[in-house]
Amino acid sequence: MKNCLVVDDSKVIRKVARHILESLDITVSEACDGREALSQCQSGNHDVVLLDWNMPVMSGMEFLQQLTATHSSRPKVIFCTTENGLGHIKAALDAGADEYVMKPFDRDTLESKLQIVGVL
Ligand SMILES: [Mg+2]
């Protein structure tokens, strides 16, 4: 069974993502900011990270940079953004994100992104 770390400061988004991912037979763990996500990535092995951009304590971008700098084999990263954050997509892909998804996302969209990065 594949597992996904959902990183978002919004409890509602984490809940929606969990619901969708579990319906795709993916095990879910959650982190509410980049720092917590980083420590979870150090102790566990996740297949994919669903990553929010704007979070307190440590942003998605900072998380991505540190993850890439410290992990030679790292999980796939799907970066989540809103329509207002379209300008961040290039920066996120340049920093090592494998794919991106627009919020709010639905099951079909998330499923196709997971297929693109090879998790499904
Ligand atoms: Mg956020």
Detailed description of the structure:
With 120 residues, the chain is an alpha/beta fold. It has a single domain, classed as Response regulator (Rossmann fold, 3-Layer(aba) Sandwich), CATH 3.40.50. It contains 5 helices and 5 strands. Strands 2-1-3-4-5 form a 5-stranded parallel β-sheet, sandwiched between helices. Helix 3 links the parallel strand 3 and strand 4 (76-81). The longest helix is centred in the N-terminal third of the chain and has 13 residues, at 11-23. The radius of gyration is 13 Å and the shape is globular. Magnesium ion binds next to loops.
Q: What's this, in brief?
A:
By secondary structure, this protein is of the alpha/beta class. 42% of the residues lie in helices and 21% in strands. The chain has a five-stranded parallel beta sheet, sandwiched between helices.
What would you give as the CATH superfamily? Response regulator
Strand neighbour order, sheet with most strands? 2-1-3-4-5
Count the DSSP helices. 5
CA-based gyration radius: 13 Å
| CATH topology heading | Rossmann fold
Low-confidence blocks of residues: none
Largest sheet: 5 strands, parallel
Q: Based on DSSP secondary structure assignment, what is the total number of beta strands? A: 5
Write down the overall mean pLDDT.
Answer: 94
Q: Name the CATH class.
A: Alpha Beta
Share in β-strands: 15-25%
Enumerate the distinct ligands. Answer: magnesium ion
The helical percent reads 40-55%
Distance between the termini: 10 Å
Estimate the global geometry from the Cα principal axes.
globular
The helix-strand sequence is: EHEHEHEHEH
CATH architecture descriptor: 3-Layer(aba) Sandwich
What is the number of independent domains?
1
Secondary-structure class: alpha/beta
InterPro entries: CheY-like_superfamily (IPR011006), Sig_transdc_resp-reg_receiver (IPR001789), ST_Response_Regulator (IPR052048)
Protein name: Response regulator
Modified residues (4-aspartylphosphate): 52
Domain Response regulatory: 3-118
